[in-house]
Amino acid sequence: MSQRLCLIEDDPIMGESLQDRFTLEGFTVDWCPTAAEGERHLRRGGYAAVISDIRLPDRGGDALYLDLKGEGLLLPPFIFITGFGAIETAVRLLKEGASDFVTKPFDLDELVEKVRALAERHTPEAGDDAEAVLGIAPAMRRLESRLLRLARAGAGVLITGESGVGKEHAARYLHEAAAPGQPFVAVNCGALTETLLEAELFGHEKGAFTGADRARRGVFEQAQGGTLFLDEIGDMSPAMQVRLLRAIQERQVTRVGGETPIPVDIRLVSATHRDLRTMVEAGTFREDLYYRVNTVQVRIPPLRERPEDILWFAGRFLAEACAEQGREDLQGLSNAAREALLGHDWPGNLRELRHAIERAVILSEGPQVGPADLLDDSAAAEAVEAEGHGLSDYLRRCERAHIVQALEANAGHMARTAESLGISRKNLWEKMKKLGLSAS
């Protein structure tokens, strides 16, 4: 399989030349003419190396690299293309972790050798693929490792955590590690009545009840050889708990209206936002079923406990929403939008964050998503009220907003931002630190 390169270059002649040469060298090249398109490709992962021009029409290649690095995204080796006047920027990028740079006009053969050497040393791993990682926070890295161990052990797993925290996503990750290519079937036990849930779990025969005009397999049968994910198992009625326990113990099910037991071979993964131990003590959840589904328990922390994941997931959701809505014009999140995301508690966790990003993509009219696109008017009003009403608070907010606007206008470039504000770079750094602004 050929190694993949991400080429971020707006010049059509240069881009076509580089794409043709590296294709001839055996690489698969994704050519992106803008930083926004390059960001979408990089978030999908799987690249052996990146070649990026520093000067791009929508955002500097340096700003793109530093922004993604600041989110904690696992990046492949970066080689920057720069003009003579931007060598200082390229050197700064090397200090920030970039692999190399070439100055125009450059020797193409030399660039090919640089890329080949870097690509051979860098083998994209599962962690480089955004779809295969649960998050970049240390707690999620540990959770990912634990799920991989559980996949090899074959144990049943109970996943706990607040609503919207990503329990099904974790279950799918466990399934793909344990039984890739086999069925993964999910059912929300809290979303169905007892009668419907029984038919959903175990299936039914033709004529078993009014409207049953044909036989139907239940999710236990549909998941044969793979994984059955029972979400919100704590919402199950006592009668259904008895039937579920029997199916797990006997490894067979009987369809509604049927008499013949059907053997099933599945891996059961359950999830709940409830405290099952407390429910057992209260007599609302069977103790024997609790120990059956709770061979190993893993907890997914809420998003407010892992702020490192907020911008990481926001970037993924933004790329997906832009692709779905055809918003090729959006160039990412503004600095103010990032501050707003980090300042929100996200009681709805990842589900709420995804909805906020999807809403922003629909409402945004500018080149970047702003805070007003993400949060509704009441949330924005509460944020303003929380900051206070005094003159000093007002002036601080104005100064902060003005610096954020200048940073956005200059693609985060510190020297250009300081020059546009008429202050020294050192003074800008001091003001940003005082106002709680990050350089990325």
What is the topology?
Blueprint: E1 4-8, H1 12-24, E2 28-32, H2 35-44, E3 49-53, H3 61-70, E4 78-82, H4 87-95, E5 100-103, H5 108-121, H6 138-153, E6 157-160, H7 167-178, E7 184-188, H8 194-202, H9 219-222, E8 227-231, H10 238-250, E9 252-253, E10 262-263, E11 267-272, H11 276-282, H12 287-293, E12 296-299, H13 308-325, H14 335-343, H15 349-363, H16 371-374, H17 377-386, H18 391-409, H19 414-421, H20 425-435
Parallel strand pairs: 1-2, 1-3, 3-4, 4-5, 6-11, 6-12, 7-8, 8-11
Antiparallel strand pairs: 9-10
Helix pairs in contact: 2-13, 6-7, 13-15, 18-19, 19-20
Can you walk through the features of this model?
α2 (35-44) crosses α13 (308-325) and α13 (308-325) packs across α15 (349-363). The strands form three sheets. The protein has a five-stranded parallel beta sheet with strand order 2-1-3-4-5, with helices on both faces. It contains 20 helices and twelve strands. α1 links the parallel β1 (4-8) and β2. Helices cover 50% and strands 12% of the residues. The model is unreliable at 123-132 and 377-391 (pLDDT under 50). With 440 residues, it is α/β, with parallel strands linked by helices. It folds into three domains: 4-130, Rossmann fold (3-Layer(aba) Sandwich), CATH 3.40.50; 138-300, P-loop containing nucleotide triphosphate hydrolases (Rossmann fold); 306-435, Helicase, Ruva Protein, domain 3 (Orthogonal Bundle), CATH 1.10.8.
